[in-house]
Amino acid sequence: MKKETLRKTILAVFFVILLSFLLYQLRDQIKNFSYFIFSPFQRFLLRTQQSILVFLDTIYEIKNLKKENESLKAEIKKLIVEKESLRELEKENQALRKALSLGLEKEFELKMVKFLGKDVSGDIFLINKGSKDGIEEGKVVILPEKVLVGKVMKVYSNFSKVKVFTFKNFSFDVEIGKEKVEALAKGQGNFKAKIELIPKEKEIFPGDKVFTSVLGGNFPDGILVGEIDEIKESDISGFTQATLKPYFELKNLDYLFVILNF
């Protein structure tokens, strides 16, 4: 029994040694065969690995691009706001320069306001200053070029309403031309106005400038209102009338001045 076991053990060792020897002798052939058999799988795995790495890199790059895009958008918005602020500041400076060039600050106490838009109810403008800024009802509103706009009609905390002088039936005394012909301006609505009670014996012409008059106490003297457009016969004996072309344009309104004292 022991001899049989010993014999089997010796044979097993012999076969192991023999197999090892054969494998050693055939190692190059075996490697070549293995490469031949498994190389397609290796290439497939390599390409798969590369594809996965490329995919992961793409995902990472997309995330980075998204962050960069969001950062650029925020920067662009910031630049737009800064540009708009500079543009508004330049407009304010232009309005102030115009007012200073005419010496308005020497004539009046002024408050600069911004035109917000037209009220739906008629010839009424909205401005961005109110009672918190010292605006009061009845104050005169002009352009930086010393051109008449109207009067403050309603004041709120942070904004006010301005009745434009073309408001229906809004009337005030004016002087026409170099001769300062006294007459009465009257609003017709829809940003139109006319001049009434022009003495027939006084000569006026289309293009003559029309200015405010101190008569009636509505406005300070010498603010430019507009110019005579068309002269017509009046229904009132001894007088003529004319259409008035205002000197403000709705599309160009931006910064205005409220005259606090005159």
Written account of the structure:
This protein is α+β, with helices and mostly antiparallel strands. The protein folds into two domains: 1-101; 109-262, Beta Barrel (Thrombin, subunit H). The chain is built from three helices and twelve strands; from the N terminus they run αααββββββββββββ. Strands 1-2-5-4-3-12 form a six-stranded antiparallel beta barrel. The longest helix has 75 residues, at 27-101.
- Overall mean pLDDT: 81
Structural class, from secondary structure content?
A: alpha+beta
The second-level CATH architecture of the largest domain is Beta Barrel
Helix content: 25-40%
Major β-sheet annotation: 6 strands, antiparallel, barrel
- CATH fold call of the largest domain: Thrombin, subunit H
Rg is 46 Å
Kindly report how far apart the N and C termini lie: 138 Å
Number of strands: 12
Elements, N to C (H/E): HHHEEEEEEEEEEEE
Separate helix tally: 3
User: How do the strands line up in the largest sheet?
Assistant: 1-2-5-4-3-12
Topology:
Elements: H1 2-25, H2 27-101, H3 104-107, E1 109-118, E2 124-127, E3 140-142, E4 148-155, E5 160-164, E6 171-176, E7 181-189, E8 192-199, E9 209-212, E10 224-233, E11 239-246, E12 255-261
Antiparallel strand pairs: 1-2, 1-12, 2-5, 3-4, 3-12, 4-5, 6-7, 6-9, 7-8, 8-11, 9-10, 10-11
